[in-house]
TrEMBL record:
<feature type="domain" description="NADP-dependent oxidoreductase">
    <location>
        <begin position="17"/>
        <end position="284"/>
    </location>
</feature>
<dbReference type="InterPro" id="IPR020471">
    <property type="entry name" value="AKR"/>
</dbReference>
<keyword id="KW-0560">Oxidoreductase</keyword>
<dbReference type="InterPro" id="IPR023210">
    <property type="entry name" value="NADP_OxRdtase_dom"/>
</dbReference>
<dbReference type="GO" id="GO:0016491">
    <property type="term" value="F:oxidoreductase activity"/>
</dbReference>
<protein>
    <submittedName>
        <fullName>Oxidoreductase</fullName>
    </submittedName>
</protein>
<dbReference type="InterPro" id="IPR050791">
    <property type="entry name" value="Aldo-Keto_reductase"/>
</dbReference>
<dbReference type="GO" id="GO:0005737">
    <property type="term" value="C:cytoplasm"/>
</dbReference>
<dbReference type="InterPro" id="IPR036812">
    <property type="entry name" value="NAD(P)_OxRdtase_dom_sf"/>
</dbReference>
<dbReference type="Pfam" id="PF00248">
    <property type="entry name" value="Aldo_ket_red"/>
</dbReference>
Length: 286
């Protein structure tokens, strides 16, 4: 029997540990509309029909595209749906990623998210550190957090999360505000946050790995493939099941533009891995 916890606290709600990341619904390079809007809308509706109640998005996906698709597909939203957005970046006319990290830009970004999603209040807004686009780097986030705290006081945000951050930044933020979740790059092959995940678990804070399947180039590993073949499941299902077993505070938001991949990914919640298999998979990261 699979004894892995099926839910974890995110803001005000317990959500299923398998959520959905909407970034892949935009066009190539997360820029512009999808080639097949009907398929994108189907993925979102299938996710909700399958019980997903945690969707990760941002207004800078497209830009605006994924939020507009989410609204088109799902509005009016189920009462228990938790939509999490992130702020801190913007796009240029060619799809390049730029920092939008001033308090004024963050405030405008939250307002844009609310408008495009058709919401009066965001359940969770992640402050996505743009001190470096690709890696968490140390640096003060106080002015940015103060801006989000002000939005919380205005009722536009219910909970604050952090993304692309170091343990030091998480601890500094916690002196200013409760933190609902931390969203950093982490998967079977990128395990730099092992200690942070354990510490967050001890504090009751959700950890939401982005690129849980490896991102734009999904994980490639002979060891992972061999384990999947031995269990008669797919490598991506094993990668997700490993994350679910890794720590109870991990909430998953695998991204896909495919209804078939969505179904496959959601089925990972029923896949229990024995300690021997986990030990074998742990070698992928080493
Ligand atoms: N905070 C941040 O800075 C940040 C950064 C990146 C992402 N995110 C969030 O994290 C979410 C997850 O990351 P992600 O979507 O970039 O990467 P991911 O979930 O690691 O992987 C997505 C990729 O895997 C493919 N895929 C998904 N399911 C598959 C399956 N069952 N079999 C084979 N391939 C499969 C997808 O292609 P198909 O479309 O063909 O299935 C896509 O190319 C995003 O959607 C976004 O919401 C946050």
């Amino acid at each position: 029997m699979n004894t892995i916890a099926q839910t974890y606290r995110l803001g005000d709600r317990d959500v299923g540990r398998l959520g959905y990341g909407a970034m892949q619904l935009a066009g190539p390079g997360v820029f512009g509309p999808p080639a097949d809007e009907g398929r994108a809308i189907q993925v979102l509706r299938d996710a909700i029909d399958a019980g997903v109640r945690h969707i990760d998005t941002s207004d800078f996906y497209g830009p605006h595209t994924t939020n507009q698709l989410i609204k088109k597909a799902l509005y009016p939203y189920p009462d228990d749906l938790v939509i999490v957005t992130k702020v801190g970046a913007r796009r240029d006319a060619q799809g390049g990623w730029l920092s939008a990290f001033t308090p004024q830009e963050l405030t405008r970004a939250v307002e844009d998210n609310l408008r495009h999603l058709g919401l009066e209040s965001m359940e969770v807004v992640n402050l996505r550190s743009m001190l470096d686009v690709h890696h968490p780097v140390e640096g003060a986030l106080e002015p940015q957090l103060e801006a989000l705290i002000a939005l919380k006081e205005r009722g536009l945000i219910r909970h604050i999360g952090l993304s692309n951050v170091t343990p030091t930044q998480v601890k500094a933020a916690l002196k200013m505000t409760p933190v609902a979740c931390v969203q950093n790059l982490y998967n079977l092959a990128h395990r730099q946050d092992d200690d942070l995940i354990a510490w967050l678990a001890s504090e009751g804070i959700a950890y939401v790995p982005f690129f849980p399947l490896g991102g734009f180039s999904p994980l490639q590993s002979d060891r992972l493939n061999a384990v999947a073949a031995s269990l008669n499941v797919t490598p991506m299902q094993v990668a997700l099941a490993w994350l679910l077993q890794r720590s109870p505070n991990i909430l998953l938001i695998p991204g896909t533009s495919s209804p078939e991949h969505l179904r496959e990914n959601l089925a990972a919640k029923d896949l229990a891995l024995t300690p021997d298999v986990v030990a074998e998979l742990d070698k992928v990261g080493g």
